[in-house]
Write a structure and sequence with these properties.
The chain has 153 residues and is α/β, with parallel strands linked by helices. The chain has helices at 34-46, 57-67, 85-95, 109-115, 131-140; strands at 26-30, 50-54, 71-77, 79-80, 83-84, 101-105, 122-126. The protein is 34% helix and 20% strand.
């Protein structure tokens, strides 16, 4: 599998123009647990998505400022080291209203839905989940993989 530079802290997204995955939808994966982030990224890559990673709210905002034009959806964990993922989801939706956000969490979905005010461009996926469940949620936003191997950045 080809990869572009990927820092262990996931705070340095690379330029998507360097990708060998032209045409693959790019997802921003915001997950602070390195092992979970690695497993989910690898699965998404195998499914034909391009993946940019962030390990915190601040890294996610920095990635979006650099890559917003290329990000199809943000996948956001609720428990992040520098803030709550649901608060990040609200910030992302306010600043980039055309981009959907998928919140993944072990928390009760109803309390998250109440906080996000029924935004139809925000989805929820309960942890733990299978790759098929994630793909179904992405497809509900109209996001489908390119079907070929993608590049991690």
């Amino acid at each position: 599998m080809a990869t572009t530079s990927s820092s262990p802290s996931s705070n340095s997204p690379t330029d998507p123009a360097d990708d060998a995955s032209k045409g693959a939808p790019r997802l921003l994966l915001v997950e602070d647990e390195a092992l979970v982030r690695m497993v989910v990224s690898e699965e998404l890559l195998m499914l034909g998505f391009a993946v940019s990673e962030a390990a915190s709210c601040s890294a996610a905002i920095a990635a979006m400022e650099k890559l917003a034009a290329t990000i199809a959806v943000a996948i956001v964990d609720v428990g992040l080291p520098d803030g709550r993922g649901d608060d990040l989801a609200l910030r992302l939706r306010q600043r980039w209203p055309a981009m959907p956000v998928l919140i993944v969490s072990g928390y009760d979905e109803s309390s998250l839905k109440a906080k996000l005010g029924g935004d139809t461009q925000v989805g929820f996926l309960r942890k733990p989940y299978f790759a098929e469940d994630l793909v179904k949620k992405l497809e509900a936003f109209g996001i489908r993989s390119s079907g070929s191997a993608a590049v991690l950045s």
